[in-house]
Design goal:
alpha/beta, ten-stranded mixed β-sheet, six-stranded parallel β-sheet, 5 helices, 28% strand, globular, binds coenzyme A
Amino acid sequence: MSQQQQDTLQRSIEHWFSLGSEAVGNSEALSAFHALRHALESGAIRSAEPDASQPTGWRVNPWVKRGILLGFRLGALESMNGCEASGISLLSFVDKATYPARRFMPEQGIRIVPGGSSVRSGAFLAAGVVMMPPAYVNVGAYVDEGTMIDSHALVGSCAQIGKRVHLSAAAQIGGVLEPVNASPVIIEDDVLVGGNTGVYEGTIVRSKAVLAAGTVLTRGTPVYDLPNDTVLRAAADAPLIIPSGAVVVPGSRAIQRGPGKNLGLSVYTPIIVKYRDEKTELSTALEELLR
Ligand SMILES: CC(C)(COP(=O)(O)OP(=O)(O)OC[C@H]1O[C@@H](n2cnc3c(N)ncnc32)[C@H](O)[C@@H]1OP(=O)(O)O)[C@@H](O)C(=O)NCCC(=O)NCCS
């Protein structure tokens, strides 16, 4: 998509979004939304993208998020058939007509293993992505080449997942649609997201980091970086950022004051125990044959 086409689409989306409920039922508004949805699915347009000029290295595209919200506004609820066997519908679903589940062909080189998974329209999956069932990828998400989405994993709305990432079983990557200028969750290339982890509220996990099983990261979670003797936190204008190559494990810290201290309680806290080394490479070596 040329820059000029993008600019035209952006103007059109901004226009229809600004009209609020007046856009509902307008076929031109629907066409603009469909053009955006198509561009999202082809990866030509993203809700957030790498941008070296930004402090975080990522730029959010609020107009794209407005376009996604426009889709919800324009879509009436409709029945959607799920699995069919011998002409009998085994499952039925109801969702906005503007967001049916995506369909894929073998030529795209994406494997969606059968069994309860769904990729919502407006999401991008690159060639070489493997999805084990059940898993869900929501609108505006971008999942790059060679990434594995294991069973019970969630890729929330607008999340950006890099190349060769492993989203282990039950990894939850939270969605960030509103506010439109809020950064989505970003998992950069070659990250291992362990089983039962949760990454929420615009957290950025830099390349090659490892989140051990059970780690949960939110804006409010301080992360203790032991090798650097520092504490990483989100700020009012910046998300929590896990540095490249950090190995983060779930830990706890003693409450230092008040009744919590008197009762000997502690709270959950993620800890960077080290930065990736040869042992980590061994621990995270993936079974390539499964790919
Ligand atoms: C993080 C992980 C990759 C281990 O990395 P590693 O570089 O081999 O880590 P090490 O074994 O050298 O451990 C470094 C330190 O962290 C601690 N640690 C490692 N993993 C931990 C975990 N999951 N929870 C708490 N502490 C952990 C170790 O005890 C060690 O501390 P110590 O030196 O005081 O004993 C591994 O624990 C892990 O979580 N793998 C993902 C498993 C998974 O989810 N698989 C998904 C399959 S679907």
